[in-house]
Amino acid sequence: MENKNRRRTPVTGRADSPKKGPYKRRASGASASKDEKKSFGAKKSYGAKKNYGEKKAYGDRKPAEKRFQHSEGYLKHRRENGPRKPATKIEVYTADDTLRLNRFIANSGICSRREADDFIQAGLVTVNGKIVTELGVKVKPDDDVRFNGTRLKGEKKVYLVMNKPKGYVTTMSDPHAEKTVMDLISHTECPQRVYPVGRLDKATTGVLMFTNDGELADKLTHPAYGARKIYHAFLDKNLKKVDFDAILKGIELEDGEIHADSLSYVDDDMSQVGIEIHSGRNRIVRRIFEHLGYNVRKLDRVYFAGLTKKALTRGTWRFLTDTEIARFKMGQFD
Fold this sequence. Notes:
The protein has 8 helices and 16 strands. By secondary structure, it is α+β, with helices and mostly antiparallel strands.
């Protein structure tokens, strides 16, 4: 009878292969002897190496600062013209340049080109003392162009963004205003006459754009172009779910129906909400919540047409980058 507890020898290879002895562990640090090493035969000889002659000498290598020096002609040009200036695109008009009258008026920042055409046809524009009512007239930068008797200056278009502080008004027509946002813009850094794009009431803080580009300002403030505006509202009490849904669906105010494009609670605090709206009506965000019985304790605009207040402390401003300006020129206002 077969003993099932007997230790079986593992099968290693074919049945007819010769039995191999156990492997022996070599002592640490020991190397195999020549007899133990397997021989693969003598190395094949491919003949002697070909001699290509002595290595050619090209002379001593010049130091790096000598090898990359500019030519004498280039250095002479730099001595005469000064250091190379960075390539910046600046809109500069010379006395010999001409441009269409409506563009000249729009560049002054008072209106868009389309509105300028209406003013021209209405006989409100004079060029060198003569009333011009024909469209397409070209003028020079040094011509005396006047609108309603006030001389206009075709300035370079500039674009700014500010983090508006509380207590400043954005309207330029309030003679009783103690502080306006224009007081915060240095005329040394920005000599051009710029205007706020849209309005923020005295108590509202956050993103506010300025420009003297009347045509762009009209697009950014017109609801048809869909410029995104996002506000952070701090309420005096929690916003109820029924009122939350009503704001999204739409509510009826004294000047018409209004609804938010999007709405959300901030950090699970039901007294703080983020509201996105494209309407430019006066005090529209405050009036929405007041209509439902809420008091807005604090209102901060955190986003406007792709611009934020990042790296801007309250009351500071900066020029827009070339990328931001190009995006506006392409009509991207979100």
